[in-house]
Amino acid sequence: MLNRYADLLLVLALTLAGLAGCANRGGSSSGNWDGRDPFSAAAQKAPVTDEFRQRFGLGLTMLMQSSPEESLAHWQGMTADYPQYPGVWANYGLAQAANHEFELAMFAYKEALSINPAFCDALSLKGVAERELGLFTEAGASYQAAIQCDPGQGRYYYNLGILNDLYRNDLEAALTAYRKARRLLPDDETLDIWVTDLARRAGQPEEDPAVIDDWYFRLTGNRPVVTQPVASPDGDAAEPEAETAEQSPETQPAQQPVEYNQRINPFLPDDSAMQDTEENGR
Fold first, then answer.
1. pLDDT digits (tens, 9 = 90+) for 228-255
2. Beta-carbon count within 10 A of 73 CB
3. How many domains does the chain have?
4. How far apart are CA 73 and CA 115, in angstroms?
5. Does residue 227 lie within any of the structural domains?
6. Range of the domain at 120
7. Would 140 be classed as within a structural domain?
8. C-alpha separations of 113 from 31, 117, 127, 146, 237 in Å
9. In this structure, is residue 259 part of a structural domain?
């Protein structure tokens, strides 16, 4: 069986860029969401200070480079001093997870979600903690909630695939999740290997079925190229010519395409148009 157990460390390593911008959008000092659009400027609360930025950045470095105990102590202090920021609680949860304290990590993710229910990464990270605790049904629900929150984020399908593959032994569901993750994370060669492996084990073709093409089109508006044979003058079928399907009003996507590595971070500490970088964690 291919090794897919290292995903938690990859989540820790690659989610940090997304969480680096998670400050106070949608949060309140009382820890209760006020029901307003969490992505709007109207949801801004207290301004982010230079001290907060410095301590937050230091905490990210410590998550990557320091001992788990030192990182945990830092983020525990951050939750005491800046409890209104959902990103602080999410990173505190990551520090707890690095110390294998998954129940405490789950509490931290729930705290982040109580401040901002639209914090999609916290939903996915909560699923990782639940999975580690053997709460597979709850983990699946958290991953599905993260997908519903941001259906264009490939790592959520990635995590769901791992859950169904290694913990539920549901090969067909895992294969579907891996196929979707592969569409959204096309540079991840590991997913190609996993899809090939699972398709062989499940007795299915490696090529994505039409249902995956339709899902991807509905999500992004990008219809796969189709081919049609063109008759030659002598009546023989010539080489097919590729054409791109036109979008009729009935087939146009209901919303703008979501690019997993270029969308505006909805948890910025200010109103600048900063973009996510390398946010495809596992």
1. 444 444 444 444 444 433 333 333 333 3
2. 14
3. 1
4. 22
5. no
6. 7-220
7. yes
8. 9, 5, 13, 12, 59
9. no
